[in-house]
Fold:
Amino acid sequence: MEQKKICPRFEKALKILNHRWNTLLIYQLLEGPQRFSIIKNQLNISSRVLTERLKELEIEQIVTRTVIPSTPVVIEYGLTEKGHALAPVLKAVEQWSSLWVDTEE
Structure:
């Protein structure tokens, strides 16, 4: 029997989504653009890690950073079209988890 090769694009996609916090961050931003402090508080993540993940997702063109010129300057993070395209995937995981994942240990 021939072993099936894993597509490099699929492998990269899983690496992006499996990187700690990335999927939760994308899921959080499905609600709409948010400021750094809101994301940080909602996910209970350190500022350093959140900054790293946002930069990584910007490089992958999944997240966009918008500077709103005001006093003080406001920075919002939101999903790009590429990021929003993950919505059905994350919603499917959400549905699956509500049926099959037990949170009690």
Q: What stands out?
A: The two ends are 39 Å apart (CA to CA). The beta strands are 34-35, 63-68, 74-79. Residues 54 and 100 are 30 Å apart (CA to CA). The first helix runs from residue 8 to 18.
